[in-house]
Amino acid sequence: MARLSATRIEPTVEALSIAKHELKLRTVVQFVRVHHSSSDWRTVLYFTTDMPVAPSVHNSHKYTNGDVGVLPFSYTLSPLPTLLRDGAESSMAKYYVIPSTPTTPYPTLPIDFPNLAMYLQTAVEDSRRAATDGSGGMRKLAQFIDSCYPGDTDTAVFDGEVPKGGVTRLLKRVMMGRPKVRSRGNEEIYDLVTPFVADEWG
After folding, report:
1. Bridge pairing between strands 174-176 and 41-49
2. Which domain of life is it from (predicted)?
3. Model-level pTM greater than 0.70?
4. Which of 11, 40, 96, 189 could form a disulfide with 141 if both were Cys (CB 3.0 to 4.6 A apart)?
């Protein structure tokens, strides 16, 4: 990911046409067990734009208080992805909503993959610091990584401009979306996710 400088995440034309503010990226990191009897986990990344919450929204404060277990307000505006419907933490899946902090604000769109990798690296480092200073729920990302991938012993370090360690553990089993393709029988096949291996691509 850190070497895919030509690849970036950007808002849709529709979003740009109606936006009256600078568009920020919201990121949800989910860890999904591949099977109930398996100890293997995969990482799923969800991206949306940050949406302002109207004061009239019921319990609007829960979307702005930095709770890492509450999905962004934008997720209330469309059907919830299936894998997120069991809540923030279950036996088969658990997710972490990256909060905005003074050191790690929401990224501005568009964002290229190297900068996205750096953002994820910083989020992991923030979580590791929170694990030692008792900063509430922010420690959960580090805890999820350590519990889902206990065999990975690399540490969070930088090699030049390429982030490794914590973000490698986070991304090495990432699942990315795949578009529809047509088979020889002219039938549409849709794969929900396809593996993205950070070690192969950067």
Report:
1. parallel
2. Eukaryota
3. yes
4. 96
